[in-house]
Specification:
The structure holds two protein chains of two kinds. Chain A has nine helices and 20 strands. Chain A is of the alpha+beta class. Chain A folds into two domains: 230 residues, Rossmann fold; 121 residues, RNA polymerase II/Efflux pump adaptor protein, barrel-sandwich hybrid domain (OB fold (Dihydrolipoamide Acetyltransferase, E2P), Beta Barrel). In chain A, the strands form four sheets. In chain A, strands 6-7-8-3-9-10 form a six-stranded mixed sheet, sandwiched between helices. In chain A, strands 13-12-11-14-20 form a five-stranded antiparallel sheet, with no helix packed on it. Chain A is elongated and about 75 Å long. Chain B is mainly α. Chain B has two domains: 37 residues; 224 residues, MetI-like (MetI-like fold). In chain B, α7 packs antiparallel against α10. The longest helix of chain B has 36 residues. Chain B is globular and about 60 Å long. The relative contact order of chain B is 0.13. Classes of the chains: A alpha+beta, B mainly alpha. The interface between A and B is medium-sized, with 28 and 20 residues.
């Protein structure tokens, strides 16, 4: 069932169109991420869903009810902003109680629910602390407890971990995912961080220029970008220009400047069509041993080795002008004793050679 | 050679800074302190126990207090509108209620008010129908102080409202709070130090106001003779002991108010933003 539906929503500020006829659905109990760079309209979209900003046109539907003309309080959406926005003049207890007090819930029920959520979020002993006395992680848990205690239809989070240090960020991300699964709550999460998206999202959408470029699961979008923008935005390391040499059913052979690749595609392509070939480094297997010649097997020499986090990025020259990038762990690289100029063999899994038609 | 040159330039620069700062500080101390050296304790106490001075203290405090209360009532909603709302003519409103009164010399403020409230003025004629005549009365003193101090108060309160994180209000809206509930539960309590600071600045401005008061209220009667106005007349008549006694009281009060702002509000601001 759809938890949230946006139908043809648009918003402009003066002559600048921020959202253009945007439509999408979010399913119950999923963690949906809206990914986009700064200024792509993420915040406008979020404020519009919350009712803090009126869309120029379109509808917002929550649980099948049109909430387009309802006030933010009537929409029953929990909201956790980027900086958590805890009420600095209220204690942790009062922050959590804020929404319940406005609902005129009996004191006894309110106390019970607050105690319960304080226990669930591990905030015992902090009830009478003020926000300025809390750590980043504690602040976030209070913000979540404050948003969830009103039993919202869905929870909107605006870059909730971006203000935290790496260690706390990892911990909070895991907690968020666990919480979402445990409470079966629909979460809409906004971020510019693709790593976070790939780690957390059940599904995500990439927002660009007021429109969603592509929806899908992390694997789907990461390995099979539909547009050049998505491929570039998700830093597809190997993007080669080529043209269709042969096509037989779903099987295609593509010619780049110097190499020939084989793959499968369900795209409507004909021989001679120009395409962009996207290959993730993870799909390219590097070996120092001889590999039997076959489909998508290349011999090359190492052009450069760069550390990327815990891995090394290896650039391999497969022809004088064609470079393929792959990644291997530092330990494996050490075992293989990789050095600049060393001859290596590359093999690419056909299933991970993805094509984007050039329009 | 280059290093020595740089060293000399830096030393000269530092020395010049210290020299000018020292001259200025000495000059300021001389000005402030001169009041205390030009009178004697007995002359001071004799003056402040005179009826004229006591009445002027009451008039000054009474009018400043009433003006500050009115300023508070009008400034808070105006500052809230300026801080939170976007509407056509907002810039004009800002110019009219803040920038213009701030940039006019107080004498000009007084003249504008006098022209407006005199028997032939627009407001004066209107009030005349109800047999109300404002110029040269206690109400004129209050009005003059109000007119001069209100832009300060609006500026301070607006700044305090601006500093409240909009996300705090947004979250409260999503939790079901009304704009009024958000204002009295969050925005106003979170801006309270800025509001109080503005109120003290308005009070301080009111206490020392002379230009507008002199023109609109005259200051020749007991109900309009504020301390600043009395200092002016006393110096004109050569009654220096009287002028100095009044000046010392005003200086002392201003010092107290500034101390409150400098230390108390600085600490409080740190606590809020910690």
């Amino acid at each position: 069932m759809h938890k949230l539906q946006l139908i043809n929503v648009s918003k402009s500020f003066g002559l600048h169109a921020v959202l253009r006829n945007l439509s999408f659905e979010i399913f119950s109990n999923e963690l949906f991420i809206i990914l986009g760079s700064s200024g792509c309209g993420k915040t406008t979209l979020l404020l519009g869903i919350l009712g803090l900003l009126q869309f120029d046109s379109g509808q917002v539907i929550i649980d099948g009810i049109d909430v387009t003309n309802l006030s933010p309080g009537e929409r029953n959406i929990g909201y956790v902003p980027q900086n958590y926005a805890l009420f600095p003049n209220h204690t942790v207890f009062e922050n959590i109680a804020f929404g319940l007090r406005l609902r005129k819930i009996s004191k006894h029920i309110m106390q019970t629910r607050i105690r319960q959520i304080i226990d669930d979020f591990g905030l015992q002993g902090l009830e009478y602390h003020f926000p300025s006395q809390l750590s980043g992680g504690q602040m976030q848990r209070v913000a979540l407890a404050r948003a969830l205690i009103i039993e919202p239809s869905l929870l909107l989070l605006d870059e909730p971990v971006s203000a935290l240090d790496i260690e706390t960020r990892q911990k909070i991300k895991a907690e968020l995912k666990d919480l979402q699964k445990k409470l079966h709550i629909t979460m809409v999460y906004i971020t510019h961080d693709q790593q976070e998206t790939l780690e957390l999202a059940d599904r995500f959408g990439i927002l660009n220029n007021g429109k969603i470029e592509q929806f899908g699961s992390p694997d789907e979008v990461f390995y099979k970008p539909k547009t050049l923008f998505v491929a570039r935005f998700l830093n597809t390391e190997n993007m080669l220009k080529g043209k269709i040499l042969h096509k037989f059913g779903k099987k295609v052979t593509i010619q780049t400047n110097d190499i020939i690749l084989k793959t499968y595609t369900s795209l409507e392509l004909s021989e001679g069509d120009q395409v962009t070939i996207c290959i993730r480094p993870g799909a390219i297997h590097l070996s120092t041993h001889h590999i039997q010649p076959g489909k998508n097997v290349f011999v090359g020499t190492i052009d450069s080795i760069h550390p990327i986090g815990r891995d090394l990025e290896i650039k391999v020259l497969v022809t004088p002008i064609e470079v393929l990038k792959t990644r291997i762990s530092r330990i494996v690289a050490k075992e293989l004793k990789l050095t600049h100029g060393m001859p290596v063999n590359l093999s690419i899994d056909e299933a991970f050679v993805h094509l984007i038609p050039v329009k | 050679m280059g290093k020595l040159y740089l060293k000399v330039v830096n030393k000269t620069f530092e020395g010049t800074n210290y020299f000018f700062s020292f001259v200025l500080v000495t000059f300021m101390f001389l000005i402030i302190g001169s009041l205390f050296f030009t009178t004697t304790p007995s002359a001071f106490f004799q003056q402040i126990s005179s009826r004229v001075i006591l009445v002027s203290i009451i008039v000054t405090f009474g009018s400043s207090f009433i003006a500050s209360l009115i300023v508070f009532v009008f400034s808070v909603p105006t500052a809230y509108v300026l801080s939170r709302k976007t509407f056509w003519g907002k810039r004009i409103l800002e110019t009219v209620v803040v920038d213009l009164p701030l940039s006019f010399p107080p004498g000009v403020d007084g003249l504008i008010l006098l022209l407006l409230l005199s028997r032939t003025g627009i407001l004066g004629k209107l009030l005349g129908h109800f047999h109300i005549y404002v110029p040269y009365t206690f109400a004129a003193v209050v009005l003059a102080k109000l007119f001069v101090s209100i832009p300060f108060m609006i500026s301070f309160v607006r700044e305090a409202f601006d500093r409240v994180d909009k996300n705090i209000e947004n979250v409260a809206y999503t939790l079901g709070a009304s704009p009024f509930q958000i204002f009295y539960k969050l925005t106003f309590p979170l801006s309270i130090w800025g509001v109080l600071k503005g109120l003290i600045m308005a009070l301080s401005k009111s206490l020392g106001e002379i230009g507008a008061t002199l023109i609109l209220a005259g200051g020749l009667t007991s109900s309009t003779g504020t301390m600043s106005v009395l200092i002016y007349f006393a110096t004109q008549k050569g009654e220096m002991d009287k002028a100095i006694a009044l000046a010392i009281i005003l200086e002392f009060l201003t010092f107290i108010l500034l101390t409150i702002i400098k230390f108390f509000f600085k600490e409080s601001t740190h606590k809020i933003h910690a």
